[in-house]
Amino acid sequence: MSWRGELNKFLSATYKNWIISKRNVFTLFEIVFWPFIGLLSIGLLTRFLEVTEDMVAFVLVGAIALSILQISQMDVAYILLFDLWSKSIKQTFVAPIRGYHLVIGAMLFGMIRGAVVFLILALASFRFFGFDFLAGGIVTVIVFLAGTFITAASIGMAVCISILLFGQRADVAAWSLSGIMMLMSGVYYPVEILPGPLQLLSKSIPLTYFLEYYRSAYGYGSHHVVFGMGLALFYLAASLLILNLAIERARRTGMMLRLSE
Amino acid sequence: MSLSIEEGEIFGILGPNGAGKTTLMSIFSTLIRPDSGRLEIFGLDAQKNTHAVREKINISSGNPNFPWSLTVRENLNHSAMLYGLYGRDLRWAVDEAISTFELEAHADSKFETLSTGTKQRVSLAKSILNQPEILFLDEPTSGLDPEMALKTRSLIKKIYEEQEITVVLTTHYMPEAEELCDRIAFIRNGRLIALGTPGELKRALKIGHRIFIRYEGDLDPLRLRMIPGVMDVRLSSGRVEMVFDHSERAVSSIIKAFEGTDILDIGIDQPDLEDVFLELAR
């Protein structure tokens, strides 16, 4: 197979997600409405509580990260969710395609949508709350976004794995997992205030480190972003491996067919 | 079950509901893995060389589904990308599939708005995008009205003839299998219970068309039994019931055998799947 053929296998998921997104009014809510409302509510809360500028930055970084994480992980989860809802999973998996083709293609579209959400929220927080999202420089933003996208891809794959293992009802994981991330990785508060065991758990979540890294540009202590990136890449590789195993298991157990009925 | 399908034939798999037809097709198309056993496609072990096998095959199922909000052309574009087609080849393959299955008028319609018959044609169009060497068709006329079923069968014949591929199809419908298939396997409870050409099976099982003739006059029963293709003759006063192999073109010989008598009434019944299975169940 030529490199262009291989490239198109990757882009097949990008193409499908793009077509479905552009035709779905829900996309506007995903990209603009809910992230914007969430950011505005959190920002206004900081006004009401009369917190310092640094603390405003702390909270807004969390709100922005959560929105990016949610939108990007959904795009990877859509690899199976769109097919699950239209009962067309077997049309995808009868083709000579591998898990990484689908994940990377969907991740690409998730990165584009995530970057758009970041831009909207960063500009809105600058306009309404004076938050300078470039205070740490463009490299900080790029590393933060890259880390968040990689983490989101692993969460999206976890959703796909759950569906392949447990069937259609597991699609609830698509909305639940980012909520767990919000609780555990210190989106709105430092992880130090979590109970001991949860603090330990938060150390195993890459998003914790990317939040820490971005916030360090606003004077919030040190960061361990290299470790966080290593952890994120490890989860990405492990998720890909488990996703492929889950696909094979779904073929063995017949789940692949049941999800198409 | 052990069976071998020849390159270039249309091979039918028949069986009642729950016989395992769809499971077998899903194993053939690598959608599910068998618990045990071995599947070779063009000499490749389908479980070890899954991706190489998938490059050579495609499948179309009855009552198909595709992403609802994509148009026919977008769904075909997406499927073609999954098979690694690109650029001019992709556009040609999609245009050709749309044209072969007469989908031009629906090319820009969303999949969710299509009728059952058109959805079926989309599925068939998708199944030829990668120019497969083997095409698996799982109940391709299921749920279609007779006119659309007839059209679908003629389209299947068309792609078989034009693309010189091997076709494996499942069906509940005996005339469809008889019209399309070179050989047929009957399966029940996951087991192969009969295998052969339609004529061979009906001869072996003595299942054929039935002709009923009411007549007046003298008739020589031996003459009837000697007609090529006649498998059974039952005589009662003024009435003959015969079972014959339709592929032997026996009807005109049967009518000739009634020369010298007055034929009052004639009726012909085609054998159906139920007849075959009732016979096989004995």
Give a description of the structure.
The complex is a heterodimer of chains A (261) and B (282). Chain A has one domain. In chain A, 79% of the residues lie in helices and 0% in strands. Chain A is built from eleven helices and no strands. The mean pLDDT of chain A is 92. Chain B folds into two domains: 187 residues, Rossmann fold; 77 residues, VC0802-like. Chain B is built from eleven helices and twelve strands. In chain B, the strands form three sheets. In chain B, strands 4-5-6-1-7-8 form a six-stranded mixed β-sheet, with helices on both faces. In chain B, a hairpin with a 2-residue loop joins strand 10 and strand 11. Chain B starts with 9 loop residues before the first strand and ends with a helix. The relative contact order of chain B is 0.14. Chains A and B meet through helix 1, helix 3, helix 4 and helix 10 of A and helix 2, strand 4 and helix 3 of B.
Briefly characterize the structure:
The complex is a heterodimer of chains A (261) and B (282). Chain A is mainly α.
Key structural traits:
heterodimer, A: 261 residues, mainly alpha, globular, B: 282 residues, alpha/beta, Rossmann fold, VC0802-like, 2 domains, 6-stranded mixed beta sheet, 4-stranded antiparallel beta sheet, 11 helices
**In whole angstroms, how far apart are the ends of chain A?**
32 Å
CATH superfamily label of the largest domain in chain B: P-loop containing nucleotide triphosphate hydrolases
List segments of chain A where confidence is low: pLDDT < 50 over at least 5 consecutive residues: none
> What is the helix content of chain A?
over 70%
Strand arrangement, major sheet of chain B: 4-5-6-1-7-8
**What level of helicity do the residues of chain B show?**
25-40%
* Rounded average pLDDT of chain B: 88
* % residues in beta strands of chain A: under 5%
Would you identify the regions of chain B where 5 or more consecutive residues have pLDDT less than 50?
Answer: none
| Whole-angstrom Rg of chain A | 19 Å
**Total count of helical runs of at least 4 residues of chain B:** 11
The count of helical stretches of chain A stands at 11
The SSE string of chain A, one letter per element, is HHHHHHHHHHH
Largest interface: A-B, 38 and 35 residues
